[in-house]
Every structure is written in C-alpha cells, then in structure tokens.
Design a protein that fits this description.
Layout lengths: L8 H10 L4 H5 L3 H6 L15 E5 L4 H12 L4 E5 L2 H8 L4 E4 L16 E6 L5 E3 L19 E3 L4 H19 L5 E6 L5 H4 L2 E3 L10 E7 L2 E8 L7 E6 L13 E7 L4 E7 L8 E7 L5 E7 L4 E4 L2 E2 L13 E7 L14 E13 L7 E4 L19 H4 L7 H13 L5 E6 L1 E3 L8 E3 L7 E3 H11 L8 E6 L10 H7 L4
Bound molecules: NADP nicotinamide-adenine-dinucleotide phosphate (NAP).
C-alpha cells in the first residue's frame, strides 16, 4: 500500500512568497529569504528584443539616409561598412558598426546577422570620373549628367553579382524571422531567465503534487509528479508578473516549441497582475518524445477562473500581458476531465516561447536600378535612354550584373523587395512617388525618398517578392498613395 503524502505548508508559503501573493509577508525584513531559502528570484523586467535592421552600403548616398531615418525611429540598426573609421566620420560614433566587404566571403561572419530581421542593401560599384577629368568640366554626376565615368576598384561582376550573392546567402542562412518575436529562448537560457518561472501546484489548495521548471541542455523542462490526493490534481509553472507588461498587439498568438509525453497541457496568459484573476487558456496535446510546433492563437483563448469558463469576461487584451503559465491538470474546463490525464511523473520540454504574426514582411530590400533589363532589348532606342543604359558596356556591363544580383535574391527563398530607382538626386523633395513595372520608366527620384520608402517597405507585407521601378518626375502623380500603388503591383 502506498503511503499517503502529507500536505506541506512550507511549499505553500514558498509559492505565495515567490509570487508576492501576500505583500505584507514579504515586507517584513528577512521573512522572504527565510521562506524561499536559496530559491532564486528574478525580476522579470525584461523586454523581448526587437529585430535589428542591417544596412549594407551604409556610407553611401542612400545608405546613410536609411541609417539616419532608422535611428530617428529608434529602430535597432547595424551599419555594414568597409571602414569603420571612415564610417564614423559620416554616420557618427554612436552606432552598431560591422566592418566587412561583400566581395570577401571571409569577412561575412554569422555575427553580421545576429538579431537581424531585415537587410536593406544599398551597395553599389564605385564609379569615378575618368582619370584626367577635371572638376571644371561637365563631369559625370550620379547618373544624371552624361559624361565619362569609369569603374573604380572592383568590377560590377564582383560587386553587383558575386558580392550581392554572398550577402544574400549569409542572410538566407542566418536571418531571424520578424514574424516571430522570441520571448523565452530556452536554447540559450540563463538561470536569471529561468528564475522568472516558479512552481504553482495544487499545494495552494491542499494538494500534494510538485513540479518545477529546470534548465537541461538547450531547453527548459517542466516536470515533476502530479497527484490526485487531497482532492488535488494539477501542477503548473508560472512567470512572475512582467514589469513592464508585454505589448503583443502586433502579433496573432504564441508559438511554443515543445516535446511532451502524450499528456494534454494548458498554456495561460494573464492580462492583469492579480494572483488569482482570470487566465486565458488554450489546451494542447503532445506526442511522446516528439518535437511539436504549437500555435496558440489569441482569438482561441478561453477565459477561465479556477478551471471554470467565464462567459462575461473582459475580452483578452493582447497589448497588456502580465504573465504566462504552463499547466498539467486532471480537469479540462467546467469539471470536464482531461481525457489523457494520468497521475504520476510527467515531462514537457520547452525550447521556445515566441509571439507570432501572420504578417510576412520583406526580409531583403535591394536598391537596384531602373534599366537593368534594357541593354540589348530590341524594343528600345538606346539613344533615348538614360546614361547608365547608354554606357552599360563602358561600365563593365553594370546593369546586366545588377540584374544577375537581383536574380540571386529571387532564388534565395528570402522574402524580398527590389526597388529599381531612376536617376538618384540630392533633392529634398519627397512627394509624388510613382511606381511602375516592366522596366520602361525614366526620370529622377531623390535619395531621401528612396530611403524613406525602404523604411515603409519593412512594414509592408504587400511588398513581398515584388520588383518595381520608382521615380518622382512628371508622371502627374502628386498624392502620397505609395501604399495603394504598391498593393496593385504584381509579384514576380
Ligand atoms: N546614381 C544613380 O543615379 C543611381 C540610379 C539608380 C540606382 N542606383 C543604385 O542605387 C544604389 C545606391 O546608390 P548610392 O548613390 O547611394 O550609391 P553610393 O553612394 O555609391 O554608395 C554605395 C555604397 O556601397 C558601398 N560598397 C561598395 N562596394 C562595396 C563592397 N564591396 N562591400 C561593401 N560595401 C560596398 C560603398 O561603400 P564605401 O563608402 O566604402 O565606398 C557605399 O557605401 C547603388 O546600387 C546604385 O548603383 C544609382
């Protein structure tokens, strides 16, 4: 006969103390430490990190504007430059720099992509006036005036094709998907992060079940013993209240990467800091020893109070999340039994807890050029074309290599947007942006406009896998309807 286990008041007090349920108890000096002993407490004032935007060619005309605008928006930005020393004189000291060269694969280390959720690629072959040209002559100026430029340093094949291909390859291997926001990444968890989670078992109602969350290799393990003695029958681990709360209003739900034991578990979110308030629950089944991707849509959360559904509960507020909880219980909701429940040992391994969004935005934005398909095209008259098209041969087939670079992005599997600007200018005018497809557009567009367009595209799912030309000249388009125009463009 098994020996009946007795209820443990010390575990009961530990639980209440860990979750600050009885504030006055914790305010008496020494009492909290006496109750909790060596148990570590973490103050969950963490915020999940939002993704970094990598700007390649950050010292260039468009690149430096992209960096500046991202900084003004307080977006984390990393500047990929060829010389940090030179970049500091252009972009200032206070920036996350990475020194490298897209044409040198060894300089493209995985660290370049750390936390990166999108790349804005503004690199371009260096072109200089032909040697011997003097500043007094009517010389080449960024594609606007027709004069005698020549390729400096590396060739377009190396920069526009091989270099872009190198960067694209690194990005497709290491980029983080911005539609997922890591909240608890237990593959790299510290004791500090783990200590945000405390056991909350049926001991609070007189039961004898016992559980905890433990770090084991590159995962957290929710395990212990669940017992129905003393009318008990549940175990759980819950976070202390987040401070500040999490705002997940841009997401659709929570993604869990778990390996279970065949049990049905519950996941809870709470929108207030009360200890015993309404929890918003979602049940999920596991398969023994099998890693599963579990999606918990916010729209399917059930408001419950002590395992009873609450019909007139406040709607779930995803902009105000205070805590999370994982539970194994004998009960489903409203006295229904969990069909897979077995008392005894249990084990749920957790690798990730992330917020997910259905919005798939571009991961790689490339500044290409209008005209990339025009060299050799029979339907156009070369002498009517902008300088870049007329001088394509002279400039090492720059447009053909830009097109090859574009193709390497299309083949990468990354979600991309390729902007093909017409002649770039230093104008301040940002009105009247006009898009077209088919590569026939002529005109000009300011670097400021292209930079701000890049920032808008970062948040535009409708830009995914689209290529288009951009100008802001005499197209008669003066309203700021870029969004509507973008939606109407065809994907590649
Ligand atoms: N000019 C036009 O009218 C026009 C029209 C349409 C499209 N475009 C294209 O638009 C893009 C942006 O134009 P922009 O005027 O901003 O160009 P830009 O001022 O010439 O800037 C080019 C950037 O690329 C960087 N870069 C060059 N080679 C590199 C390499 N091997 N590795 C890493 N970075 C490298 C340069 O770095 P450093 O500072 O170290 O040299 C610089 O930051 C370019 O691709 C250009 O061809 C230009």
């Amino acid at each position: 006969m098994t020996q009946k286990q007795s209820w443990e008041i010390s575990r009961f007090l530990k639980t209440l103390s860990y979750f600050d349920v009885i504030p006055f108890l914790n305010n008496i000096p020494g009492v909290k430490q006496m109750i909790l002993g060596n148990q570590r407490l973490s103050n969950p004032s963490f915020l999940p990190s939002t993704g970094t935007i990598l700007v390649a060619g950050a010292t260039g005309g468009v690149g430096k504007r992209v960096v500046k605008q991202l900084q003004q928006q307080n977006d984390p930005v990393r500047a990929f430059v060829r010389s940090i020393e030179r970049a500091r004189s252009i972009l200032g000291e206070n920036l996350d720099f990475y020194e490298g060269d897209i044409t040198i694969p060894d300089s493209l280390k995985p660290e370049l992509m750390e936390n990166v959720t999108a790349v804005i690629c503004c690199t371009g072959t260096r072109i200089e006036p032909v040697e011997g040209d003097t500043p007094n002559r009517d010389k080449y100026y960024q594609g606007v005036k027709f004069y005698e430029p020549e390729v400096a340093e590396s060739t377009p094949e190396v920069v526009e094709y091989k270099g872009i291909k190198n960067l694209v390859q690194l990005a497709s291997e290491y980029i983080q998907d911005a539609s997922y926001l890591p909240i608890f990444d237990f593959t790299q968890a510290t004791e500090e992060v783990k200590a945000i989670w405390g056991a909350l078992d049926d001991v609070v109602m007189g039961g004898v079940s016992a559980s905890g969350l433990y770090l084991e290799g590159q995962k957290a393990v929710f395990s212990g013993n669940v017992s129905t003695e003393n009318n008990g029958g549940f175990v759980s681990v819950r976070t202390r209240n987040f401070d500040p709360h999490l705002d997940l209003s841009e997401y659709e739900g929570i993604y869990l990467r778990v390996k279970g034991d065949g049990n049905r578990y519950k996941f809870f979110l709470r929108c207030d800091s009360r200890w015993d308030g309404i929890g918003y629950a979602y049940s999920f089944d596991t398969q023994k020893d099998t890693w599963l991707d579990v999606y918990v849509p916010f729209s399917e959360l059930v408001p419950v109070f002590r395992a009873k559904t609450v019909e007139d509960a406040e709607p779930f507020n995803q902009s105000h999340i205070n805590s999370m909880q994982l539970m194994l219980s004998k009960f489903e909701y409203d006295k229904q039994l969990n069909p897979y429940f077995q008392p005894g040992q249990f084990r749920l391994e957790v690798e990730q807890i992330q917020a997910y969004s259905g919005q798939k935005t571009p991961q790689f934005i490339m500044i290409s050029s209008a005209g990339v398909t025009r060299p050799g095209r029979s339907d156009i008259n070369v002498s009517d074309q902008p300088p870049a098209v007329q001088m394509n041969d002279q400039l090492g087939n720059i447009l053909d290599w830009k097109l090859a670079g574009e193709n390497s992005i299309r083949e990468s599997g990354l979600r991309y947007t390729i902007i093909r600007p017409c002649a770039l200018t230093e104008e301040k005018e940002t009105e009247g942006l006009y898009f077209e497809q088919g590569d026939n557009l002529k005109g000009q567009v300011s670097r400021d406009t292209i930079a701000s367009l890049c920032l808008k595209l970062l948040k535009s799912p409708e830009a995914v896998n689209k290529t288009f030309e951009a100008a802001q000249t005499s197209q008669g388009n003066t309203s700021d309807n870029w969004h509507e125009q973008l939606s109407k463009l065809e994907a590649d």
